[in-house]
Amino acid sequence: MRRLLMVWAFALVALTGFSTPDSVPIEVAVFLRVEATEEQRKAVIRRLSTMPQATGLVYVSRQDAYAEFSEMLNGAPVPVEARDLPESFRFHLPDERAFNTLRAALTRMPGVHTVVCRPGRLKGVPPGKEGLGTRSAEE
């Protein structure tokens, strides 16, 4: 009986939207390898710039990533230096289907470490904003 209740509970969770619906906007981050070259970074920018679904493209430098990491630690000592953190690009896509297609292409590119997503909008980037921007450390 308990096993049946557990199966029913898991099924209920799955049916109520535990996974991300395809129509939810997706926030994407493309993390470069720490040793990525300038040419590899430019190739990723070119690829993202040709994708009309990728909007609000923002470059996050190592210094910006360090400031963000430091802020997350709430004043505690930061165990890394800026040079240890990867550069990244953040943007949004209209849905998870677009993410899966883009992730497949980007993960094969030299210099790309990983591509991740989560439902929602980028902090400080209005929906529909096009073009490459830079994120300031204050955002």
Structure characteristics:
139 residues, alpha+beta, Alpha-Beta Plaits, 4 helices, 5 strands, disordered C terminus
Structure description:
The chain has 139 residues and is α+β, with helices and mostly antiparallel strands. The protein has a domain at 26-119: Alpha-Beta Plaits (2-Layer Sandwich). It contains four helices and five strands; from the N terminus they run H-E-H-E-H-E-H-E-E. A five-stranded mixed β-sheet has the order 4-1-3-2-5. The chain is globular. The N and C termini lie far apart (52 Å).
Q: What is the CATH architecture annotation of the domain at 26-119?
A: 2-Layer Sandwich
Distance between the termini: 52 Å
Largest sheet: 5 strands, mixed
The overall pLDDT, averaged over residues, is 76
Structural class: alpha+beta
User: What portion of residues belong to β-strands?
Assistant: 15-25%
Radius of gyration equals 18 Å
Q: Largest beta sheet: what is the strand line-up?
A: 4-1-3-2-5
Helix content: 25-40%
Describe the oligomeric state of these chains in a short phrase: single chain
